[in-house]
Amino acid sequence: MIKTKSLIANITEVPREWVFEYYLELDEKLCGQDVKIKSVFNIQDKNPSLCVYYSKSHEAYRFKDFSANKSGDNISLVQIKFNLTSRGEAAHKIVSDYNKFLLTNTVDYGLRKFKVRNKYKVVDFTTRSWTNLDEKYWTTYYIGSKLLTHYNVAPLENYKMVKEEEGETKELVIKGSYLYGYFRKDGTLYKIYQPMVKDNKFIKVKDYIQGLDQLTMKVPYLIITSSLKDVLGFMKLGYKNAESIAPDSENTIIPEHVIMALRLKYKDICVLFDNDEPGKEAMKRYEEKYDIKGVILELSKDLTDSMRDHSITKVREVLTPLLKKTLNKTK
């Protein structure tokens, strides 16, 4: 007797985790963990920015591509990746590809153990005094201790992370020479910056619009940069009629209610992000959503790198006419 495999006809019969594993070519099975890979939508992505994660609210795996600003479920992934016109077309492709997969592979998703894994969270930290190493790093960008203190940046001796796993508390204590805590005025830690670490340079602890505590709202212009380091760099440029803030990252947009409130305080607002494709895409989102124009500084990748590579004088020489041209054209 010839045995044939049972093929499926409905998208609901295709395991959602298979879709991510197959189309993203993951080298591990999804069993509740989060996986981060390089973007499949942005070929210029140098560091992993596409996260496949288990959403407790959806009770299913989803994806978020921070460099390309793409997100959604398994069907969205296929629709976007293959530029399909509808979710129905994407679902049809998934079913067809899954059937082809079944004909040549042995797989049983029903036997897979599936358990959502807790993530490490920062629970404690120890600050330290500034050192010559810190001075050497920050002054490369013309940023000194006075400005760092004003924006509540402090060097860290270490920080502790914990997570619960199978009834056991696991703990990590991270130490290093170049560790910095970003704090709010009330002393709340909202981010850890590790500039010498290739992956996970930033560890987000809490949501916060960077530089918000330091705004005076007594100048006519507001510049939205991509990071707190760029906020510091912009303020170091010495413009008397502008100040700066930054979202959590280029990939997160400042909420609409905050933008509306800021527009009541400033004559105009513009965006100054990195000049790579993710930065340009982020600026495009601000223009489309808020009609806020962007400035592209065509020197080094970002503002502070440009200051390091070309000097404050050169950056001001190039940036000033760009700001003048852009501001007051937003509305």
Précis, in short:
The chain is an alpha+beta fold and 331 residues long. The protein has helices at residues 16-23, 74-81, 87-104, 132-139, 145-150, 228-236, 256-263, 277-290, 303-310, 312-326; strands at residues 35-37, 50-55, 60-65, 70-72, 121-127, 153-165, 168-175, 180-183, 189-193, 202-204, 221-225, 242-245, 268-272.
Helix percentage range:
25-40%
Oligomer: single chain
The radius of gyration over CA amounts to 23 Å
Question: Which structural class fits the helix and strand makeup?
Answer: alpha+beta
Note the run of SSEs as H and E: HEEEEHHEHHEEEEEEHEHEHHH
How is this structure best described in words?
- With 331 residues, the protein is an alpha+beta fold.
- The chain has helices at 16-23, 74-81, 87-104, 132-139, 145-150, 228-236, 256-263, 277-290, 303-310, 312-326, and strands at 35-37, 50-55, 60-65, 70-72, 121-127, 153-165, 168-175, 180-183, 189-193, 202-204, 221-225, 242-245, 268-272.
- Strands 5, 6, 7, 8, 9 and 10 form a 6-stranded antiparallel beta sheet that branches.
Question: What structural keywords apply?
Answer:
331 residues; alpha+beta; DNA Primase, Chain A; Dna Topoisomerase Vi A Subunit, Chain: A, domain 2; 3 domains; six-stranded antiparallel sheet; four-stranded antiparallel sheet; 22% strand
Topology:
Layout: H1 16-23, E1 35-37, E2 50-55, E3 60-65, E4 70-72, H2 74-81, H3 87-104, E5 121-127, H4 132-139, H5 145-150, E6 153-165, E7 168-175, E8 180-183, E9 189-193, E10 202-204, E11 221-225, H6 228-236, E12 242-245, H7 256-263, E13 268-272, H8 277-290, H9 303-310, H10 312-326
Parallel strand pairs: 11-12, 11-13
Antiparallel strand pairs: 1-2, 2-3, 3-4, 5-6, 6-7, 6-8, 8-9, 9-10
Helix pairs in contact: 1-2, 2-3, 9-10
